[in-house]
Amino acid sequence: KLTSLALQPVINPELVQGRVHLRCSYSHPSSKPPLQYVVVWSRLSTPGKKEQIQRDTTLQSFSYVEMNGVNLRLGDTVFCTVTAFTRDTPEQRSLPEESKGFYAGIKFLPESLQIAEDGKEHVLTILSTVPIACPGHDDSCKITLQLSTEDLDSQLLGPPNIALSACRVDLLQAPCSESSCAAAVLTVTAVTDFAQDGNRISRIRAEPVGQRDLLWRAYRPKDVKVTVRDLPTGNCYSFTDPHIITFDGWRYGNYKIGTFLLCQSMSRAFEVHIRQWDCGGLRSATACNCGIAAR
Quick one: which of 2, 202, 246, 289 could link to 94 by a disulfide (CB 3.0–4.6 Å)? Predict the structure, then answer.
């Protein structure tokens, strides 16, 4: 019997006549008589379970399968398994060798984020593991993704939990290298909401838009999970006739009439103005808050 031949099958994406194909390549040991190969293509249908989608018998050291959006779609993890035999003794076969799983579709790096309400920007890379086809002369070779965010804890009302640097990104056609055939970059920032609302989970959704190609039109990439860690926020107060407590706990009274700068950030556009009017009696001069402006 033929033993293990170290065929080492590998899957790579290619454009063939403007259509997305996957190519299974393997080593081609010299043999008399020449070897033939059985290449079985399969996809992961459920975790731990594969279904066969194509079977080829060939003398070549490669095999192709088309991503047609029907039996092989974006979002699938694909494998090719290769077995060798000679024409004289087809019943004697080498041990089958399986490639690593190839994920065909959009990937996010990192796949999930853990960020804090500290204003820092976190880079999120979006890449396509398959080449971008050019469907017509009037279309540029790109995939446009519409991005949106959603807070999973819907019981809490308030502002969005995360902010993106862009609402749309374009994946432009580029030569495939290191499992990326097109890529775009954006930043994700946690919204500082001054609310002690605990750690919250959001997700980022990407949807291809304006696509005539069935392969992309029916595809919905997996969402990115973002965990936002709550950070304690500082508080300051101005109340009644006004008693003021600063962020660091210092207390004093301000009985003047007029408009005052109550609080101002030295690092960003954030300030609070307060207006006080006379609300005292004949015996004592007292001022009270009567208006506020915040930026």
Answer: 2
Considering the four listed CATH numbers 3.40.50.300, 3.40.50.620, 2.60.40.10, 1.10.287.1080, the one that applies to the domain covering 106-229 is 2.60.40.10
Alpha-carbon distances of 57 from 21, 43, 62, 100, 235, rounded to whole Å: 18, 19, 10, 20, 73
Digit-by-digit pLDDT tens for the chain (295 residues) are: 556 678 999 999 999 988 899 999 999 888 778 889 999 999 998 888 999 999 999 999 999 999 988 889 999 999 999 999 888 887 888 889 999 999 999 999 999 999 998 889 999 999 999 999 876 655 578 899 999 998 887 555 666 889 999 999 999 988 998 889 999 999 999 988 777 778 889 999 999 988 777 888 889 999 999 999 988 878 889 998 899 999 999 999 988 899 999 999 998 899 999 999 998 777 777 899 999 999 9
DSSP, collapsed to helix, strand or coil, labels residue 215 as helix
Amino acid at the residue 42: S
Measured CA angle at 61 (ends 55, 67), to 5 deg:
45
Q: How far is CA 281 from CA 252, 287, 288, in A?
A: 21, 10, 12
Whether the Cβ atoms of residue 258 and residue 278 lie closer than 8 Å to each other: no
Task: Dihedral sign for Cα 126, 132, 136, 140, please.
Answer: positive
Which residues belong to CATH 2.60.40.10 in the chain? 10-103, 106-229
211 touches 219 (CB < 8 A): no
pTM: 0.77
